[in-house]
């Protein structure tokens, strides 16, 4: 080679080029996998589902009847309740921006009050000889379990730390709201116990039994709750 001439660039062997492309391909595959996960978990752009052609298909099987129970109670009243649940979970040593959740949830539900007529025995009903008067001794009304209405219940806001958001990406049930639902049902049940639902149920049950027995020919009907 003469002096002053530039040395032509040497081409890398095929094995060297493949070694350099290896990390790049790995990073591209990882980025693609994360993109698929993000697209599956959240809607980054409004109307993206329509552009991608995503459809909702119901492949659920038929409902199976597991058991049948005879009902021997009369529901004399039902109350409709609504409560705003503000549930916050914090980590002691981490700021909320890193670890912690706060959910503001509006819950609507109903609670029924009933009288258990199946508990009435022969000693609970007294009829005179002329069958003109009857006395019934019934148990006090009770409250049923609260039932949340999913169509009228909704989350107003959800605040999650960075670690919680990352956990939701790889979770089978992200942003689990079971704790919020349980707390809402508990608060609605407490409100029902403080109301006059049981008294109203006993009053309506008495009116129902009086009307039915008087239609059968009884002139005097007395209903007491013990």
Explain what this protein looks like in three dimensions:
With 226 residues, the protein is α+β, with helices and mostly antiparallel strands. The chain has a domain of 153 residues. The chain contains five helices and eight strands; from the N terminus they run H-H-E-E-E-E-E-E-E-H-H-H-E. About 2% of the residues have low confidence.
Fold topology:
Elements: H1 14-41, H2 48-52, E1 73-90, E2 100-116, E3 125-127, E4 133-138, E5 142-143, E6 147-148, E7 154-160, H3 162-169, H4 178-193, H5 197-215, E8 220-225
Parallel strand pairs: 4-8
Antiparallel strand pairs: 1-2, 2-5, 2-6, 2-7, 3-4
Query: Helices and strands, in N-to-C order?
Result: HHEEEEEEEHHHE
Total strands: the figure is: 8
Q: Counting H and I runs of at least 4 residues, what is the number of helices?
A: 5
Portion in helices: 25-40%
Q: Give the assembly state of these chains.
A: single chain
> Which structural class is indicated by helix and strand composition?
alpha+beta
Mean pLDDT: 76
């Amino acid at each position: 080679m003469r002096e002053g001439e530039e040395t032509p660039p040497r081409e890398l062997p095929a094995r060297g080029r493949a070694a350099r492309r290896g990390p790049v391909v790995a990073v591209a595959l990882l980025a693609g996998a994360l993109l698929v996960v993000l697209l599956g978990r959240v809607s980054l752009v409004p109307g993206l589902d329509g552009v991608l052609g995503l459809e909702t298909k119901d492949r659920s099987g038929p409902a199976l009847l597991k058991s049948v129970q005879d009902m021997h109670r009369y529901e004399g009243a039902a109350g409709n309740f609504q409560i705003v649940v503000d549930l916050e979970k914090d980590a002691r040593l981490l700021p909320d921006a890193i670890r912690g959740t706060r959910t503001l949830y509006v819950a609507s539900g109903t609670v029924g009050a009933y009288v258990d007529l199946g508990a009435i025995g022969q000693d609970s009903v007294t009829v005179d000889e002329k069958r003109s008067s009857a006395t019934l001794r019934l148990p006090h009304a009770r409250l049923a379990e609260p039932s949340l209405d999913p169509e009228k219940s909704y989350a107003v806001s959800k605040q999650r730390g960075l670690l919680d958001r990352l956990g939701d990406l790889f979770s089978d049930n992200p942003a689990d709201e079971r704790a919020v639902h349980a707390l809402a049902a508990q608060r609605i049940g407490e409100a029902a116990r403080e109301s006059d639902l049981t008294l109203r149920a006993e009053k309506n049950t008495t009116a129902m039994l009086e009307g039915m027995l008087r239609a059968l020919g009884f002139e005097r009907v007395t209903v007491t709750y013990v």
